[in-house]
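Quick one before lunch.
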Amino acid sequence: MTLRKDAFFEKMDALGKAVSFDHVRLKTGYSEVMPDDVSLHTRLSRNIPLRSPIVSAAMDTVTEYRLAIEIAKWGGIGFIHRNLPPEEQAFQVAQVKLHLNGRIDRPRTVKTTDTIERVLAYIREKKFAFDTFPVLDGDEKLAGMLTKTDFEFCTDPSLVVSEVMSRELVTARCETTIDEAYNLMRRSKKKVLPLIDDNGRLCGMYVWQDVLRIKTGSGLPHNVDKNGNLRVGAAIGVGDKALERVELLARKKIDAVCIDTAHGDSRSVHETLREIKRHYPDLDVVVGNVSEGASARRLVDAGADAIKIGQGPGSICTTRVIAGIGCPQVTAIYQCEKAIRGSGVPLIADGGIRHSGDIPIAIGAGADSVMLGNLLAGTKEAPGEITTYRGMRYKSYRGMGSIGALQSNLSNDRYGQKEPQPKDRIVPEGVEGMVPYKDEIREVLIQLLGGLRKGMGYVGAATIKELKEKADFCSPVDMQESHPHDVIITKEPPNYRITPKEEN
Ligand code: IMP
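Model of the inosinic acid complex:
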C-alpha cells in the first residue's frame, strides 16, 4: 500500500537526509473534522487497545504505580520501570490493577449458618466499608446474597443468614466482561452480580457502583481490561532474570511486558522474546528499541506484539554522541512503519517528544502511540521529591543509562552490560538532571491530547488510523517562523515553555 508521505520520505532518502521533529510539519488538508469529535482510540500492541495514544516511559523518575494509574484513567498505559526488585515491581502492578474495583475476583463471603450477629461483628472487626456478601452453603455453592436491605429489615440478629438473605439472584458466568456485566445489571436492575461456574461455585462479583463509575463515572476514558481493572505494563530485561520477572508479573495480570533495551535488534532480545512467547503465548510483548526498518521487520518475524522506536532521541540520552549511532526519530518511525506495513504490529514512538505538536507528527509518520518521559517527569504523580532551585520548583529526571540509574544494578543489561560495573568502569548513555515541576498530570495530558486533536482537525483525520494514512509532510528550512518570534513572552501559556534552546 502506498501512502502520501511515501514520496516525501523517498525524496529525503534520495538526498541522504533523515529528519526529526524539528525538521518537519504536517501538511493541512480539507477537513470536516472538529477536534472535539476525533477518536483517539488506538492500540499499544496486537491485543491491547488504548483509548488515547499516551504511554509513559519505564523510567525510575517517571513511572511507578501512581503515575500509571493516572495515565490509564486518561486512556493510555504506563510501564512500571525495572529499577525495582521483581517483587516490588509486581506489587506496583497490583496497585494499579486493584485501583478500580471492576470485577472482584475473591469477594468476602458469609455462610448460610452464620448468625447476623456474627456477620455484624465480622464487619466491625475487619472495618469493612461495604455490607453486601455472597452467601455460601455447606458445599461452598452460592446460596444467596446478604445485602444492606436484608440487614435493615432484620429485627432479630440471632437469626441465621439463610433466614434473612435474598434468594432471587441474577448470576452470570465466570468469564463475564465488564461491558456484559454493565448491560445485564442495567436490564435486571440488580446492584450486585455474582459470577458462578458450572457447578454453582462463586468465582467473582461485580458491584454496580464500581461498574457504573468505570463505564461512565468520571467522564475520563478509562483504559480498562475485560474485568474493569486499569491496564498497566512493566519493563523487563533479557535472559532468565526477565523470565522470572514475567512469571511474577503475569500472576498480577499484567497487560503487556516490554523487553526494554537500548538495542532491541540483538540476539539476547530475540531469544528472550521467543522464550516469553513460548511460555506465555497470550501475553503481549513489546520489544525495543530499534530505529531501522530491517530491525523492525526482524522483530515482527520473531513474534513481537509491538515495537518501540527510538535510539537516541530521548531528552536525557547521550547514546548518539557517545556511540555515534541512531537515526533521527521521524525518519526512524517512518522507516519502521514502511518495513512492517500490513503486519498488524503497532509501533510506539519513544523519546524526543517536546511539544504536543510532535505527537501528531509521530503518529503521522507511522506510530500508533507515543512514549513520554520528560513531559511527565515533572508531574506530581511521578516518583521523587520536589526540589527548589533559584526560587523555581523542579523534580529530578534521569536517564536509565545514567550513572545514578545504572548503579542500582538492576537494569545494567539495558545498555548491553552483562554484569554490574564499578562506578569508574560505567560508560553511561544518559544524564541526570531535573525538569520544572508541573503539578497534576491531568493538566499536562489535557494540553497534549488537545494539541493532538487540533493536529488531527487540521489534517482532516477523524481517527488515529486516518492520521497515519492521510499524513503528508513538508520540511521547513528554518523553524524560527514556527515558534513565537519577535516578541518578548510575558505570560507563558500552559502548552508552550520557553526552553533555553528556544531562547537562543
Ligand atoms: P524523553 O521523553 O525525550 O525524555 O525520552 C524518554 C525515553 O528515553 C525513554 O522512554 C527511553 O526510551 C529513553 N531513555 C531513557 N533513559 C535513557 C538513557 O539513559 N539513555 C538513552 N535513552 C534513554
